[in-house]
Model the fold of this input.
Amino acid sequence: MLVPIRAESCGGVIFKLSAATISSLKEQGLLFLASARQGRGYPAGDRLSHYYHYAEWQETPVPTGWLGDGILAMELHCMDIGHSTRRAIGEAVQAPGSYFTTKDEGQLLILPDLGWAVYVYHG
Done:
């Protein structure tokens, strides 16, 4: 059996979005997320702020290659979630209507139709 080589650490977490956040995302789209690019607790000037700074938000679908054998697929596989949850996330990020951003060693996905924010990482 072949076992894929994994990064030193990987995984993720799923957060439930509030009804108000889902509504705002559906009404405002990328505009709602535009200023949300710096990790909480690491403001500009903090020595680690660059590591917790995210790229500009984009609407899905995610780039070709993230799924299948790609980085997002690996990160989702590292999470302790079932196949149906991984499949739901994979389907959501391949269709319009969700959002994503990246930082060094991580991706943040906002999936309004599922009501989730998903943070995945690899290190």
